[in-house]
Queue: 2 jobs
Job 1
Amino acid sequence: MSLDVMALRAQFPILSQQVDGKPLVYLDNAATTQKPQVVIDALVDFYTNCNANVHRGAHHLSDEATRRYELARDRVAQFINANRREEVIWTSGTTESINIVANGLVQKLGTGDEVMVTEMEHHANLVTWQQACKRSGALLKVVPIHDNGELDLAAFDSLLSPRTRLVAFPHVSNALGTVNPIRQLTAKAKAVGAWVLVDGAQGIAHGDVDVQEIGCDFYAFSGHKIFAPTGIGALWGKFAVLDEWPVWQTGGEMIADVEYLSSTWGQLPNRLEAGTPHIAGAIGLGVAVQWFGQLNSADVQSHEQALLASAMEQAQCFDGIRLIGTAAKKVGVMSFLLEGSHPADVGFILDRQGVAIRTGDNCAQPLMKRLGIPGTARASFSIYNTLEEVDRLFDALRKAKMMLA
Ligand SMILES: Cc1ncc(COP(=O)(O)O)c(C=O)c1O
């Protein structure tokens, strides 16, 4: 079996449009993925037929909205193999999920405690811990990477200590495409008694995420990276850990009993979800994971690897391309520099030819500094991309090279 890519593409209306008279080649999937019709329909249907607030109203619309909203939680819980549905906390995305954990951690840490991150972090998984350490007096340690973009596992081992309270790392690097050995890293961190947070922003759409098998305490991800709307995501956490994690926002829905001078908190998941949530977004995320989950994950991965292999091969034969991130285990992300030109200029010329890529620091300034580069051009692939589109990327790059020479 293999993916029927043309049938998949047909489900994404945005992909049939033209840019400057040229068919769109969308290769910015690590920034955000496009949405299949089934997700768009779920949003339209929600607002057309059952818009109401959840958990509150004693009326039909509210009941139906609540049913769809909680069904979405079940679908996400099943998709990541959560042990309990209450372990799935709706957030606005990975950034908010990480911030919830960091806000709680500040109350648990003090001088002498340590937090570990890696050199390949997105700002969301670096600045958040950096600030949490500043607020708590803990020490932030940064695990180095090798020049090819793989994590230095020996350094990881030597930086871990009994003082390490939390270790945070990306499942997959957004800038380099590196897939980290998250089970191995988690096991090592758990052996010293640390909490483990996996930044799953780039991992969620690239393979089977089984949070119980990974063994981490927290897995954070965004809906928009997995064919769902923006503004919705989830923090998954082990029930026992989340249940005693300090609340972060206070207000409606998260309380048990309120007096003028004191309050008590409700049960999970509500205690970490204050206020009216992004109901339509959550429903859209539930539909997206169900839709994506029905695809054969081996087919998904082999298609993505075929796209990556074609891109990396063509890049290696292309005089003037320097690849950034050549780890042995990568997802469909190719970061590169075109010799003698700025990534922004490359991106601009590609855009004129209908090819959409990301350029810049990839929200990873310290990583760019570590690699001694100002930023990269980045093509990132998804299930609906084709080998012909990879060829179009390289046609466009040849043109860019000529124009920028
Ligand atoms: C590795 C990684 N972490 C965190 C984030 C932040 O995700 P969001 O902006 O959806 O909160 C991103 C977004 O690109 C990412 O790639």
Job 2
Amino acid sequence: MQPQQNNPLIFSCEFFPPKGEENASKLRRVRRKLARIHPRYYSVTFGAGGSTRDRTFETILEIQAAAKETGIEAAPHLSCVGSSRKSIREVLQAYQHQGVKRLVTLRGDLPSGMVDPGDFHYASQLVEFIRAETGDYFHIEVAAYPEVHPQARSAQADLINFKHKVEAGADSAITQYFYNVDAYLRFVERCKSVGIDLPIVPGIMPINNYVQLARFSDACGAEIPRWLRKRLEDFPDPATMSAFAIDVVSDLCYRLLEAGAPGLHFYTLNRADPTLAIWDNLGLETQPANLSAVTKI
Ligand SMILES: Cc1cc2nc3c(=O)[nH]c(=O)nc-3n(C[C@H](O)[C@H](O)[C@H](O)COP(=O)(O)OP(=O)(O)OC[C@H]3O[C@@H](n4cnc5c(N)ncnc54)[C@H](O)[C@@H]3O)c2cc1C
């Protein structure tokens, strides 16, 4: 793969919006701990159909309010399925009003029981709408699937659909998580071959709880390689698995950065320690201008 590292590496951390004050203050502590890796931005997920709209907004406001001191941007996720143009317009205006400049733009999945997809069917339509409404105001991230989105007709169709999102106005992409470096490298090559040229940042899922991860991976089409599944199944509980899991994911990150990935996006699940342990293994103490700062594990 030709390196994608034309710019300083981009690191970012993703959270889900906490429920209740206790979880909100826990997340504040997590954010403070993660600040030491100097992420470019903290993103906050958005429940499809608007189910977390207020909590996502509140969490983003806190991150945005702290940004003057931390230098860490707030990046709300915005999914369009089940939403109207009017409601999306309101959300965009609210974020603009707060000075938020980066969005992670998604289709989302219709919650069970909800049948009306609303005004948008695909993320590309949302990207188009945001550009039509707000011009170049937002930096728009979109999702990419090195192991192919589970509902895609074929790998080629998925690639072309990804291209539509890029042509609609995306600035960069974050991938679904994966544990197979080749899947990512070959995906980036295929993107280049069809003229897609934007940073595609690998999404990194630290492994905390194997049972949960296996269930989630089945649903979202992320593959846990057999050797890894078998090794993870051997551990009686998450605590005993931790050192092995951190080692595996650190090695994945190292190989991705060495191969030219433009950064890493950590799916933190609102926990700081796994991401920090991986970061420390990589020897990435501050955002490096280039890979010379990455220590071989
Ligand atoms: C980094 C990241 C963050 C995420 N955050 C959230 C979140 O906060 N909230 C949430 O609800 N979900 C989130 N998701 C999950 C995401 O919403 C699901 O994976 C969803 O199924 C697809 O969203 P998308 O934006 O990739 O959709 P799309 O890009 O619209 O693609 C969805 C499917 O439709 C196909 N497709 C696209 N365009 C067309 C077309 N014109 N004709 C036919 N088929 C087409 C694609 O090939 C694909 O199979 C996230 C995923 C990632 C990778």
